[in-house]
Amino acid sequence: MTEASVLSLRACLALLALPIYLLSFLGIWEPFCRKIFFPYFLEKFSAVHERKTKKQKQELFRNLPDFTSPSGELKLLEIGTGCGANFQFYPPGCKVTCTDINPNFQRGLSRSMNKNQHVHYEHFLVAAGEDLHQVPSGSVDAVICTLVLCSVHSVNGTLKEVLRVLRP
Length: 168
Hints:
Elements: H1 3-25, H2 29-61, E1 75-79, E2 95-100, H3 106-115, E3 120-126, E4 142-144, H4 155-165
């Protein structure tokens, strides 16, 4: 590749990135990504991902009813719920508490709850996996965390919290 080609490619890339630089300079990029772009992108990505992994997820979540408490309830905690892509795989009547560090997923989460009326939505907590202090110890029957452990600050801290909130 010649030096002129490299310079031309750099100029094109800089031109393409100019809106991002401008929004970042104005302090708008971070809120835009967090509130609009990332939730929108994740919802669209989840739809494609779910079509490709549907059979595997059905198998993965098939035994959730086995974790029903002696009272007959099944309380699930999902860490990193995002837009609720897993709800379709949860058993009827289970109670789901959703957590995510990004409160802007609630719009997509509402759409998913409307599509999955078989699930009882308890509430949404803005919380990181490493700090689930809002969830009482021993209060849930199962914890779901798909596509999230790669983005937590501490996998060990998250797994310690999972063990803490699970019913003995």
